[in-house]
Amino acid sequence: MATVRVVLRKKKNKSGLLPIAIRITKDRKSSYLNTGQYIEEKYWDEKNRNIRKSHPNSSVLNNFIATKVAEANDKVIKSEMNPEYQTVSEIKNKIIVTKGLDFFAVAEMHLQNLKNRNKHHQYDTELGRLKKFKEFLGKDSLPFNKLNVTVLKKFETYLLHQKSLSPRTVVNYLILIRTVFNLAISESITDRGLYPFGKGKMTIRIPESQKIGFSEAEIQKLENARGITEAQQKAIHIWLVSFYFAGIRVGDVLKLKWSDFNDGRLLYRMNKNSKLVSLKVPDKAIDIFNLYRESSSYDDLIFPQLKSIDFRDSEEVTRRTQSITRNLNRRLKIAAKQLGIKKNISMHIARHSFGNISGDKIPIQMLQKLYRHSSVTTTIRYQANFIHKDADDALDSVVNF
User: Fold this and answer.
1) For the chain, what are the domain ranges?
2) Strand 50-51 to strand 276-280: parallel, antiparallel, or no bridges (unpaired)?
3) Which residues form the Tyr recombinase domain (predicted)?
4) CATH architecture, range 216-358
5) Looking at the domain that runs over 103-194, which CATH code has it been given?
6) Do residues 297 and 308 touch, judged by C-beta distance below 8 A?
7) What is the pLDDT of residues 272-323, one digit of tens each?
8) What end-to-end distance do the CA atoms of the chain give, in Å?
9) Which helix (H) or strand (E) holds 222?
């Protein structure tokens, strides 16, 4: 009777990783089938013959290996039902083990990595995009050698014309696919030669987006708002606080505590990238905060929307923040219409509005600091949406004769 067992072999690949194989043994002779998976030796649990939980993708890989062992066992049993004697090599040749994980299995690894890093909003967004990719393919599996430029081009056309998505949104789908493919290469799951992106292949070009911010007059309408509901007024307060602090994100505004303020400065750590921020508190922001200071202790949140949340549950915090943001945006739109503001408004427009009013008045290095950008190149690209003076002057110099 032949036996099937999963083992970690000792011959390293070029990346210094060890291969996981399926060993078939009969009459004390063994033959090996490579699963296409490679790991560091420290992640292998020799006693339980699986990958330790400390590996970031242990769940997906162990499920994959268990499936392949079950398939091999099934083939061994069927082979041994043959009355003629078969050697271990003959049995091995009748077993086909598909090499490596497919695209969607690696995509599951990517999603799990997002969860592990508490990127719950990104997890939800990218889970939806992967479902749409499956919908386009009409199947739940896709080998990496079948994920080529032709498939990507057809998917791009499908999103643009059948799903009527914007070019920028379509780019986000392609970036996700590229991210999963890069993960597969880094984990030695697929070959770099199959990579369908880059020069002469599928190129991803991020289209220029139009960013429109409010003018000083429009912001003054928000500051002096009258005749709106209390809920709408509170939404405007949160929007203005975001604007006053150079467009800090709504999730960070909602988490502000009284303890974040010391000696006239705001000291907080950004949720998006954990950067520590120190900003002067403008007088206009103080006026708003004073409206919420009643019966608040030092460790209380300034705004009440997240007061009942357990901040140790990052997933629940993300879900609740998304729901609150939708409600705030809805109230802002109603209030803006009543105040005679025709531009579209949302919480994120506060950041654009800061960029619009700052224009070219502030040195780019200082704007980089205020925006909390890691690279000044990002700031230059962002602020280009709001700097028009040089182009306007150049145009006037030609046509005004």
Assistant:
1) 3-93, 103-194, 216-358
2) unpaired
3) 209-400
4) Orthogonal Bundle (1.10)
5) 1.10.150
6) no
7) 556 777 889 999 999 999 999 875 677 889 999 998 888 888 889 989 999 9
8) 97
9) helix 216-223
